[in-house]
Write a structure and sequence with these properties.
589 residues; seven-stranded parallel beta sheet; 24 strands; six-stranded antiparallel beta sheet; Immunoglobulin-like; globular; homodimer; TIM Barrel; 25% helix; 3 domains; alpha+beta
């Protein structure tokens, strides 16, 4: 066992693969918190190899959380979770477009399995045969009223074992983070990655992605209208239509259709906007860099385009050269996750890249490598990305998804904080005004307040129904909607300096800005399953409402909390909110 | 290339694994149809190995169907499908509780990749880099109105290549089925497996699974009531409650709770019923066979129970010995698929079995091996099972699922016929009477008409709402419901002799009884996406209705069809049906 920094240890089993997450580290590991002894030692771990790869059995104590951006599950104890990159992760099986082989437990330690493979975690199952022999006299618990109970009855508490299966590899390095607390274990992981990211003030403001078929003239019109309506939008995003070829990408402005984009950019900047450009990294044959990139790309195409091997400096240099003159402030890195549902596109797991990575590994690393590349060309910015993994904490990239359930999106905010990720519960469409406003409230109190109106000709608050919107037909509640939108945008603008401070703290100490309650209150059993409210920085707790109901239960952890001048003690409380109200609580110190 | 029988060929690449689907063949391969040349030859296939396993690139012609029980997708062309056994397969990614690495195309050939691994098929993607170089001048097709188009635009037609990735293995045998037609290719596959299964008349009748908490006296009461109401139920099923311990299983009657089950069985038989018993194969420590089974079980437990290695004659013998005296006619083999969602239970992929199989392989084989075991003890019967795979055609086992969407269930009937599987769109609950009756109509014209009322104290036609049902409260439409139920049960009873003949044909020629239209009409492009109607034997076409609408479009293939005395020619027709009507068409010869 090797000590990396105070409270952080590395164990090495067998012969680890050459290229893993830490191989691509750009920032030195930093330290935070106490110099604690490791949660377990090498001798406590069983390691074996097989033709399938290798497996570790680790001691397991406490309830398990983490594994990256999990939209469908929160507590992972007793579950099986496989780290597999998938844009359309519908099941509670660990798949995600940002899976991270890192978990943390309520007992205050974290574990990173440093492998860019489809690692499976059996969190408290996988008991050896005979382990239950002594249960021979157990009473049957089955009844038709309680199948879930039956399923779980024999799972026990996990009996202190977690099995980790790593495909292909014949060994792995395992990092242990021995926290002063659960939160400190997460902070140690983030600092080990190089510290949390900082976000610029404009990146913390309000983002608006414009209609994909709009032209340069339309952008300026939008921008003016937002200012006329007093809406503090800070970033305008251009969707695929800006490329001469989008699937795959040319990275060339289609000025024939757009008009003079440079003049438009100049005007947008004058009005104080920052500009975001959509892209993915699959490079179309019509792109000026296609032939040059060819030797530094994987052996398979995606949508007819090359897949750059961003581990190679040459690939980064060629790619960034084409990006240097685009005149944007930041990018939206789409489609880098790969998808089974959306047409089955992606490079195969068995693809080969010039660096020696295969497709399975690249699916885990592409998000990180792509972030590093763009961050190199556009540092100190704030970008969007659709795939991430381990070691991503220092990069100012915010995740988003094509999935859309509001409760899943809230869970995303809660879960991302366990593993050094940021998540935007973006707004694209809404069933009705209530759904729209409730989603907007969640977005307001999230890492990124983003409206992605790529298929709406007019802002969604003019008209929520797509067909009517695109026919320039306003909805009856449009004026009322604008009023509420403005109030929420203004609130976000007001929050920016607080969030800046909190991100500075994230950067310096690794303390996530958005956190599950359990992370700060691991001893409070009530918090173990709370995946629909969260802490925002040091001072606030937010409990989102959804369009399902204006009434909800809120759990406040120990201490005193304040809202609208009223004071609440820890415990469960019920609240009912009008549509223009929300449940933000301030901690009374 | 080796010829196995007329029109069936075997290709061998690299060093195949020792244990695959064909290793466990119990019936000799038989032949049917013409002695056609192979659809492609060894030289047309690229084969390579890597540390991940191996990959094949096959020529691909025509539209692709099959891959076992796929509930979410129908045509697989351009998709990625991974054969992974999962009870809760929510995505269109190939996962299924009965994945089969066999596909068939509209060009009249089928391919079986004989591997019990999580094989991935890239059905027309996975193009090598540079393949799209000539598209440099292509116009961009992206527009916000047509993202799906954008996703697909560069996928092309597949350009004649299918990549198949096999994990772990350094080789594989591939079987080619050169059909006289698409249907003949499927028949050749079924005959290669040993022929289609036969089903006894009682198995083709109406199945009813009784309330799980019911006792021996309740069973007899149910049985009498069905007869009094004139309902031709042929099989009564007992759910988990019959075991002294159910999760995992003891295989011992809990007579303390049940009362005299033997006397009840005698009475049920007298009334003409057959008896079905629920179980899974995970053997609880309290089971009399636990200690004896120990050496023949895998190294991991499931729900505290042993996982028998049914490749071993000893395991089969011990297991069947405990089953010999149970007095049942047939079994329901539950939970043998493993589930990520339902609590994450199962043995890990890296589990080791005494035969040398690992967990990944066992996930593919357990369904088949378990069927073989029970079929050995209870031959010429008709059972239920929740997992299956390749080579299963000769076994009289019908699949079911915990998923429940009606349209998925219809698609299951349509898809199962491509790969030698049978599927029961069972009825458990319903939103309302219409949903119940429409589902019952689908079940009536399916491989198995099964009502699984395991959590309802009274029959669902008394009361559809669970709480009210269990409080003995009848719904207002109960009498009307019973009338419709009786009519549909009677229709099933009337169909039995026709179905028996069709299953005899399936047995003798491999021709599936329930078939997608595309299977009989591969040249008819309209059939390529029709996954909501199907052929039943030689004479009928059935187009189910769901509770969504009483009106639907029905496509009739070329020829003349008859319904209610009216005649229809091939093409699209619209029909509206009252709740007690359905859309069954008879072919006019």
């Amino acid at each position: 066992m090797e000590k990396i920094c105070p409270g952080v240890y590395r164990l090495r089993f067998g012969t680890p693969e050459e290229m893993t997450f830490t191989t691509f580290r750009e920032y030195p590991a930093q330290s935070v918190g106490g110099d604690n002894p490791p949660p377990f030692i090498e001798e406590d771990v069983c390691f074996d190899t097989s033709i399938r790869g290798c497996a570790l059995t680790l001691p397991q104590r406490g309830e398990v959380y983490g594994f990256g951006l999990q939209l469908r599950t929160f507590r992972h104890t007793l579950g099986k979770r496989t780290m597999r990159c998938n844009a359309d992760a519908l099941a509670s099986n660990g798949e995600s477009h940002a899976p991270v082989p890192f978990f943390v437990t309520t007992e205050g330690y974290g574990v990173l399995i440093d492998s860019a493979r489809d690692v499976s975690f059996y969190c408290g199952q996988a008991r050896p045969k005979g382990a239950s022999r002594s249960h021979a006299n157990a009473e049957s618990s089955w009844a038709p009223e309680a199948t879930d109970e039956a399923y779980r009855s024999e799972l026990g508490s996990g009996e202190g074992r977690m099995r980790v299966e790593i495909p292909v590899a014949k060994g792995a390095e395992v990092y242990l983070f021995a926290g002063d607390s659960m939160l400190d274990a997460v902070q140690k992981y983030n600092m080990f990655c190089g510290g949390g990211c900082k976000l610029p003030d404009w990146g913390l403001g309000v983002w608006y992605r414009m209609y994909g078929a709009s032209s340069a003239v339309d952008w300026v019109r939008f921008a003016k209208r937002f200012r006329e309506d007093g809406l503090p939008v800070t970033v305008l995003g251009l969707e695929p239509g800006w490329h001469t070829h989008a699937y795959s990408c040319s990275y060339v402005f289609d000025d024939k259709r757009l008009g003079d984009h440079e003049e438009a950019f100049r005007q947008l900047r004058e009005m104080g906007y920052h500009i975001n450009l959509w892209e993915h990294c699959y490079t179309h044959p019509s792109s000026p860099i296609y032939e040059e990139l060819m030797p530094y790309a994987g052996d398979h195409e995606v949508w007819g385009g090359l897949v750059p091997d961003f581990t190679l400096p040459e690939a980064r240099e060629i790619y960034l050269r084409q990006h240097a003159a685009l005149g944007a402030d930041c990018f939206k890195l789409d489609e880098c996750d790969g998808a089974d549902l959306t047409g089955g596109w992606s490079y195969p797991d068995g693809a080969a890249f010039p660096s020696g990575l295969d497709g399975e590994q690249m699916h885990h690393l592409l998000g990180l490598l792509y972030q590093q590349t763009i961050n190199q060309g556009y540092p100190d910015s704030c970008h969007s990305v659709r795939a991430s993994g381990a070691m991503a904490s220092p990069y100012p990239f915010i995740l988003y998804s094509d999935l859309y359930d509001h409760k899943d999106f809230i869970r995303g905010v809660v879960n991302a904080g366990f593993s050094g990720l940021l998540w935007a519960p973006e707004i694209r469409h809404a069933k009705n005004l209530k759904d729209f406003v409730r989603r907007l409230q969640t977005a307001l109190f999230s890492p990124q307040m983003l409206i992605n109106a790529w298929y709406l000709k007019n802002p969604p608050w003019d008209q929520l129904i797509r067909e009517k919107n695109n026919a320039d037909e306003h909805m009856p509640e449009a004026a009322e909607a604008l009023r509420m939108v403005k109030a929420l945008f203004d609130k976000r603008a007001e929050l920016v300096s607080y969030l800046e401070r909190m991100y500075q703290q994230y950067h310096d100490t690794g303390k996530p800005v958005f956190r599950a309650l359990i992370l700060d209150y691991p001893q409070d059993e009530a918090c173990q399953l709370i995946d629909d409210e969260y802490l925002m920085g040091d001072d606030y707790l937010f409990a989102p409402l959804t369009e399902e109901s204006d009434t909800r239960q809120v759990y406040l952890p120990e201490g005193t909390w304040q809202r609208d001048g009223q004071t609440y003690l820890g415990g469960w409380h019920e609240f009912t909110c009008a549509l223009d109200e929300y449940l933000l609580f301030e901690r009374v110190k």
